Amino acid sequence: MSGFLFSQKKPQKKPVKKTTVAKFNYHDEFKRISDEVMTNGTAYENLGELTKGIGPRFSATPGYMKAVEWAEKKLKSIGIEMIWRMEAKAPVWIRGRESLQIKTANGDWKNIRMLSFGNSEGTGGKDLTGEIVLINSTSELNAMSVGQLKDKIVFVNLPMDPKIINTNDSYLITAKSKLISASVIAKTGAKALIIRSLTTAMDDTPHAKMVYYEPDDKVRIPAVSIGVKSADELEKLLKNQKVAAKLNMTAQSKGDTTNPNIIAEIQGKKDSKVIVLGAQLDSWDFGEGAIDDGTGVAQCIEVLRTFKALGIENNHTIRIVFYANSENGGQGREMYAAYVKKKGEKHVFALGTDAGGYSPRGFSLDMSPQRRRQIFEWKNYFLPYGIYDFDQTEAIQDISPLKKLDIPLAELVVDTQRYFDYHHSEQDTFDKVNKRELLLGATAMTQLIFIIDKNW
Fold first, then answer.
1. Which residues form the Peptidase M28 domain (predicted)?
2. Residue 318 forms beta bridges with which residues?
């Protein structure tokens, strides 16, 4: 028996067939995405409908709700079935009538173009008059003796620094200056604040800014911005003589209401993990909100349209969020982050687009070094499309609250040299947007979402 056993040949194992994982030729896939967007993309036409058809869509106004209904219909028209609203708190602030006049000792009152800060206190529709005092540095402010600014109107002519090439950086540095904080100025006893608009333009168009009052402010003073030409002319006058201002604003706050975020998605074929794209749906109350941020809304819709048009089988859920109340409160972004935390949803990645729809240059990557290195490895796929800048590391748009949940963030980086010419002004209109640049941005966004969906 034993000899028989030892003489037998060992049974041959059947060769195991190796299961092959589909590998993508990303150069070809990127080209396919680009061809679809650049040939059939509808982002520009959609932007025209949103800006020219609806116009201003400020929080807590009928214009915003018209934009909500438009977005829902547009998403349904491209075959998106999962669409829902998420209510977020929004302040009710009404600009009303506003005017600013200045006068030298021997002159007549002269009208100056101006815009109230968003959420600013008004003057109750009564004239607020006072002597203007120019302060252009924190050292000048600190040198003021107690009571020296009491009942004065402080004027700050602080330009964006032209030496800083990245205009986003220049804007943020200026915007964070305590010189243009109504709360800081109010503590000096001053009764109003006038600032030079935060803009790179050299015209006389005023640009809006959001006011932030501190909870412990005993007095909330009105704050307004004026155009660059008026600001420079006013500073020249103040160097030679006293100048008075007369400010009249009916601006008022009327509590809170709710406005919805709009959420839409293509559900994942592999799992329920989420890749989210975000843009703000609201705009200021005086302009079309084309570059800020109608372009972002149109690009997000284009990403979903392209996935549907090409029949891309996405592993994870591809979701877009159109945020409410971005301009004068930021409640929409906070509500979405709270929702994600409460639901315990696993988010793989978040991408923001709020930079004006100009020529894309890259992506700012606010994420772990490991994730950054992975994206660096894909740079050659993006280079043929003019996408090369992956070195920036901050995400400060509406997706930013997701950082607290350890979600990797990125923002579309564009050529911003013209952005602050029109940002937060009546000049933010549809005609400032170039169709090809807008579609190139949508292309890069779709490519990034595609490659992350296949690898993360």
1. 261-438
2. 266, 275
Q: Which residues of the chain have pLDDT under 70?
A: 1-23
Other beta carbons within 10 Å of 147:
9
3-state secondary structure 5-50: HHHCCCCCCCCCCCCCCCCCCHHHHHHHHHHHHHHHCCHHHHHHHH
255 conformational bin, left if phi > 0, alpha if psi -120 to 50, beta if neither: left
Residue 52 identity (one-letter amino acid) = K
Q: What's residue 441's pLDDT? A: 98
d(CA 100, CA 359): 37
- Determine the Cα–Cα distance for residues 353 and 337; give it in Å rounded to an integer: 17
Whole-number Å distance between alpha carbons of 353 and 264: 16
How confident is the model at residue 147, as a pLDDT? 87
Closest among 345, 380, 360, 364 to 302, alpha carbons compared: 360
Cross-strand partners of 293 = none
Instruction: State the CB neighbour count (10 A cutoff) for residue 136.
Output: 15
- What are the chain's domains? 26-92+255-455 (3.40.630.10), 96-250 (3.50.30.30)
Report d(CA 360, CA 438) in Å as an integer: 8
For 237, counting Cβ atoms within 10 Å of its Cβ (0-12 exposed, 13-18 middle, 19+ buried), the class is middle
Residue type at position 324 = A
At 56 the three-state DSSP class reads coil
Q: What is the DSSP letter of 51?
A: I
Give the Cα separation of 322 and 286 in Å (integer): 20
The pLDDT score that the predictor gives to residue 18 is 44
Neighbours of 80 (CB within 10 A): 20
Separation of alpha carbons 230 and 102, rounded Å: 11
With tokens 């809170």, the residue in question is 256
In the structure encoding, which two tokens stand for residue 386, read together? 């003019």
| Residue 53 CB neighbour total at 10 angstroms | 12
| Strand bridging mode 128-134 / 243-249 | antiparallel
- Report the number of secondary-structure helices (H) and strands (E) in the chain: 14, 15
- In the block, tokens 């660059």 appear at 228
- 313 φ/ψ angles, rounded to the nearest 5 degrees: -90, 95
